[in-house]
């Protein structure tokens, strides 16, 4: 059996390699960067993905680095009052079988990488940016930017937001820049002035802004993420999302919320992207996975979780179909398409709800305040998983 080639060694690509190896497939991961790695910030993990990480045999190792919040709190950034909370304690665990946790990206990626390195079925190569490919006979011939070539039985494009593989399969151009700009910072807990909500994951939502705070690395550091919906971006102005626009956007926020801006670094910021859900992401022996297939805004905190779910389903479908890659990839995308599309569209909606002002803010707060913290039914579709 020829090996399967995976373009991209992020969370999605490595999860796919591991899931396929566990089914006895040989896999080669071609990563563009000179080293495997992740940026140093936090990531939230729901029970839907814990089930997948458990199947991949890495949950315990990842959880050893995690922090387990007792609730997910939504507060109003203008008055700092709690609007609603999702209790993620005992009842949540009983309902979904797993805990909600937050973890440093490097720890999540690093533990999956460690297991990949231990598996003889997986070859890991860096500085191998995939530049193109063609299907030839019963194989896919992949060409890398440095001229290296590989022949595999199939190709999985897990090469992220700017996927080269996607452009060959779908050809729909660049992802949509949402005009939402993100600043982040991880600081030691002893530098955090107000720790009154330190046991929870808290989101303060406000007009065209929000701030997220939760602990990482066993609770020793605080992850801080500030996001603005850029007015300058909407108006096509220069310097959209620049640090002075961040300060400007937070001038209306409650002093406590505004004060937390000191925890985010101004050195680097990111603009968020997503895409409208595609109706197809496979062609013959080539398919897509993770952000290459369905990039999403961060508002449900599910992008990486969807990538890991993709990986498990992909390996299941291939195991059932043997060498019949075309039908297996169609079965895979059939199972993944609506669920990932729901995440993409719900994330947009949740982003809107977070960022409202005026009467819409009043309505949001009134309706959400009526929620019972333990009424989890609205999340069943997501957290019960696959
Ligand atoms: C602010 C923010 C907060 C987020 N919070 C969460 C959260 O709490 N929970 C969650 O689940 N998700 C979250 N996400 C989403 C999550 O980060 C992504 O969905 C996830 O990392 C996607 O993984 P991936 O492996 O598909 O793509 P990527 O992580 O982008 O990995 C792609 C890999 O492919 C490589 N590559 C690129 N081009 C090529 C090429 N041509 N050839 C070979 N290799 C290539 C890249 O170097 C990279 O290593 C968040 C995103 C943002 C922006």
What is the structure about, briefly put?
The chain has 386 residues and is α/β, with parallel strands linked by helices. 35% of the residues lie in helices and 26% in strands. The protein has 13 helices and 18 strands.
Task: Describe the fold and architecture.
- The protein has 386 residues and is an alpha/beta fold.
- The chain has a seven-stranded mixed beta sheet with strand order 5-4-13-14-15-12-16, sandwiched between helices.
- β8 and β9 form a beta hairpin.
- The chain binds flavin-adenine dinucleotide.
- The site of flavin-adenine dinucleotide has 33 residues, from α1, β3, β16 and α10.
- Flavin-adenine dinucleotide binds next to α1, β3, β16 and α10.
């Amino acid at each position: 059996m020829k090996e399967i080639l995976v373009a991209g060694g992020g969370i999605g690509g490595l999860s796919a390699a591991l899931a396929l190896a566990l089914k006895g497939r040989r896999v080669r991961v071609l990563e563009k960067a000179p080293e495997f790695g992740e940026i140093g910030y936090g990531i939230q993990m729901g029970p839907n993905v814990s089930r997948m990480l458990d199947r991949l045999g890495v949950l315990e190792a990842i959880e050893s680095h995690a922090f387990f919040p007792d609730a997910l709190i939504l507060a109003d950034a203008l008055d700092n009052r709690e609007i609603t909370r999702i209790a993620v304690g005992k009842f949540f665990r009983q309902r979904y079988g797993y805990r909600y946790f937050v973890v440093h990206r490097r720890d999540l990626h690093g533990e999956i990488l460690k297991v990949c390195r231990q598996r003889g079925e997986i070859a890991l190569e860096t500085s191998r940016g995939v530049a193109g490919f063609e299907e030839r006979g019963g194989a896919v011939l992949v060409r890398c930017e440095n001229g290296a070539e590989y022949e595999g039985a199939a190709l999985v494009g897990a090469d992220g937001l700017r996927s080269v593989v996607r452009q060959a399969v779908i050809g729909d151009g660049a992802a949509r820049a949402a005009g939402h700009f993100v600043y982040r910072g991880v600081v030691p807990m002893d530098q955090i002035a107000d720790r009154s909500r330190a046991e929870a994951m808290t989101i303060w939502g406000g007009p065209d802004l929000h701030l997220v705070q939760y602990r990482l690395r066993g609770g020793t550091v605080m992850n801080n993420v500030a996001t603005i919906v850029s007015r300058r971006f909407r108006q096509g102005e220069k310097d959209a999302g620049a640090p002075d626009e961040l300060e400007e956007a937070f001038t209306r926020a409650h002093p406590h919320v505004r004060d937390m801006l000191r925890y985010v670094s101004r050195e680097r910021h990111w603009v968020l992207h997503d895409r409208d859900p595609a109706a197809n992401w496979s062609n013959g022996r080539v398919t897509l996975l993770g952000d290459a297939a369905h990039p999403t805004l961060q508002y449900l905190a599910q992008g990486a979780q969807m990538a890991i779910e993709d990986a498990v389903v992909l390996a299941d479908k291939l195991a059932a179909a043997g060498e019949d890659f075309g039908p297996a990839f169609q079965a895979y995308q059939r199972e993944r398409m609506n669920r990932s599309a729901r995440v993409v569209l719900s994330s947009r909606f949740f982003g809107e709800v977070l960022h409202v002002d005026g009467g819409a803010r009043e309505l949001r707060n009134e309706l959400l305040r009526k929620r019972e913290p333990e009424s989890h039914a609205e999340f069943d579709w997501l957290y019960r998983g696959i």
